[in-house]
Amino acid sequence: MIRTLSLLLLFFCLMTIYAVANDKPRLYEEMYPEIGYKSVEGALYDFEQHFKQKLKLPLRVPPIIFTHQFGRLNDLEGDLNDSFEVTFINDQLSENHFKIEVRPVAHKIEFSDKAVLKTFKLDNGNTAKYMEKPIPGFNLLEFERDRWQYVFSIDKKVSDRITPEILVRIANSIDF
Predict the structure, then answer these.
(1) Among 30, 156, 165, 23, which Cα is nearest to 98's?
(2) Are 80 and 90 in contact (CB under 8 A)?
(3) Residue % of the chain over a pLDDT of 70
């Protein structure tokens, strides 16, 4: 009886070790397309076709390392909540996460003035609002340009390196 239990215990231990050793994390290249992401160029094309208008993206990104970038058109019921999203991520450093969301100003997200820590004047004369509280774990820069609302989100864990001023430089790179 003891020998049978010992063999069973050994068998389960070996199976657990084998399962853990063969349990490889899924690649971002597999996971993100399953939830609607594709190449940034493909998603941008979808967005421009959906709204029948060109969209300018910034030429700059935060000066941290990203291993992947994905885009998607969030095409929900009606145009009310439709948006374009670009996500920059690093599969080795989860804090290296930057996202750009764009939606028509007519359907913009309204943020509480209480959340705004700083305002900045962009090169095109528009105002950008820097916030820390609206989305847990992320700092935001929100501004409008060419009838679009842009919201940049950066992981708070890199806020010591990616300052509001850097986000403003990224926003100003849209005009180049």
Answers:
(1) 156
(2) no
(3) 82
